[in-house]
Amino acid sequence: MKAMILAAGLGTRMRPLTDHCPKPLLPVGGKPLIVHHLERLAAAGITEVVINVSYRAEQIIAALGDGSDFGIAIAWSREEIPLETGGGVLQALPQLGEVPFLLVNGDIWCDLDPARLPPLGDDLAHLVLVDNPDHHPAGDFHLDDGGRVHAEGEPRLTFAGISLIAPALLAGQAAGAFALAPLLRRAMTAGLVGGHHHRGGWIDVGTPARLDALDRRLRAERG
């Protein structure tokens, strides 16, 4: 299975840290944020990774190269302007192939082992969900007792930014910038989205304060 890391955002919420450094390269726990993803993917046996880049793309490419330093092969998907989640994935589909792939938001940290995710079967997506953080108390989706994900319903959980995606989820979409969330909600209505509740470590590294909190946590764990 291949993976894609979404890393083309402008990092607006992380300013001023991202004025001169793209968000994926911000250091946390002694290494760039995106390197945590690469190492976890390699440990899970996922060795082919597509990364989309736009803002300060050359900095990211220069830092990571072909991925060989991390035991993986990186294919780069360049976007002249950020294409959002859906548009970015659609452009990268030729590099990802025709089978389900792992999709990871570049601005999160999670201790999930990707190798433990179940196969998609007939579903179009499988979402990893987490407890609602303080900054997002309303959550995103409802996970029922049967492991199905719904756009409506209680209680609600937060999308962790990690999912298995079938290329068919994007069938019929035109090239350009668009979000993935409406396609996921449509698939939920059709009963084609599964999920599970990850109860381990997770953080949305969306602000300098949360980046600092994660840095302190990882350094403390490392001793």
Automatic annotation (TrEMBL):
Pfam families with a match to the protein in the record: NTP_transferase
PANTHER family membership: N-ACETYLMURAMATE ALPHA-1-PHOSPHATE URIDYLYLTRANSFERASE, NUCLEOTIDYL TRANSFERASE
UniProt domain Nucleotidyl transferase: residue ranges? 2-115
Report the protein name in the record: Nucleotidyltransferase family protein
InterPro entries cross-referenced by the UniProt entry: GlmU-like, MurU, NTP_transferase_dom, Nucleotide-diphossugar_trans
Q: Which CDD domains match?
A: NTP_transferase_like_1
Asked if the Swiss-Prot or TrEMBL record annotates the protein with the keyword Nucleotidyltransferase, the reply is: yes
| NCBIfam families in UniProt | NAMPUrTaseMurU
**Lineage: superkingdom:** Bacteria
Keywords in alphabetical order = Nucleotidyltransferase, Transferase
